[in-house]
């Protein structure tokens, strides 16, 4: 088996591989921008400078440095065309152009000294390498930028030392300094853009998680309230089944056993529901909040009290309800109607303080459902501060979940005059869950 490299050589090899590895996929420079002209700009700049530097580099290498036309054209192509590649792969483009620039400088060493042109980089080469270093700074990581910067400076210093008789202008120092500044600036802008994009993505994820958590919390709260409704019915079934043999004379033994089985099943179901509710309840439900969990659930009959409390808070509310109240309203519908009115009024207090509001609760024409309507006008004073910042639920999310629970329909939306409308129909007979989901408006 081949022996492993010594630790220093292994670290140097890993560093070289890391430096030479491009950062991320070959996405065009500016390709993530929302502005179309920003996405097109790198392609336009690359094409423009390629068309400008290609003939200029070939002319300089041929007429000023004395290289043959074929060699000069090949080297000019290798220096200028990578600008087109740099739009997607800046590091690869710089490596090709840098190697071609060094090769051109080495080829010029065989020619007579020309003091009229800077050495070792002619002006077209300097312009091309600066553009490529700027592109590298916009894409690559800091170790790669340092390696590119040092390679440019070392190559210029070595070539300058090989032929000190040529032009003594500090063009290689200029490329080293200006190129480093361009990469530093581009790298800082890139890191700032990456940080802003990461923050925007995190905010999007947080908003989605917040909406999901809100929905789950509302469903959990509805499940706890639903437990009280169902538990009441199960308790009634248990009591009726247990007392049937004593209330009904002459029952056969089989009927007595059947009633006993019904009572036992009801008690078992009630026990399972309480166990499930223990999972849904918060940890402090048995503490200060336990009394609220055991309190009777409100219904349509308590809507006048709710409206009265809202009026005392400074919100003008008109209430229209049937007298007498409808009988035999299912408890889930009764509770849902109260919660919808409660949440709608809380939203008015928060978002349109002082707005005239009208609450209407009625039975539909067919007598098969309850109609709940809450309409508010625009805020009386748009600059007024909300008189209440809390809420009993989670706004429209809770309304939609309650309407879906009973298989009803919900219609919400702004009004032309700046107000808002909440209209719900809660059928007395619950529709299948799939139908209910389709009927709820977003």
Radius of gyration: 39 Å
Terminus-to-terminus distance: 67 Å
Strand order of the largest sheet: 1-2-3-5-4
Number of strands: 5
Helix content percent band? 55-70%
Q: Give me the oligomer status.
A: single chain
Count of helical regions: 14
Overall outline: elongated
Q: In percent terms, what proportion of residues is strand?
A: 5-15%
Overall domain count: 3
Topology overview:
Layout: H1 7-20, H2 36-64, H3 69-80, H4 82-85, H5 90-108, H6 123-137, H7 142-162, H8 171-247, H9 253-280, H10 290-294, H11 303-312, E1 317-320, H12 331-351, E2 357-363, E3 369-376, H13 396-406, E4 409-414, E5 420-427, H14 433-439
Parallel strand pairs: 1-2
Antiparallel strand pairs: 2-3, 3-5, 4-5
Protein described:
62% of the residues lie in helices and 7% in strands. With 442 residues, the protein is an alpha+beta fold. The chain folds into three domains: 7-169, no CATH class; 215-292; 298-439, Histidine kinase-like ATPase, C-terminal domain (Heat Shock Protein 90). It has a five-stranded mixed sheet, covered by helices on one side. It is elongated, with a radius of gyration of 39 Å. The chain starts with 6 loop residues before the first helix and ends with a helix. Mean pLDDT is 80; it is low at 283-293, 386-393 and 431-442. One of its GO terms (cellular component) is membrane. Residues 336-429 form the Histidine kinase/HSP90-like ATPase domain. This is histidine kinase. Its EC number is 2.7.13.3.
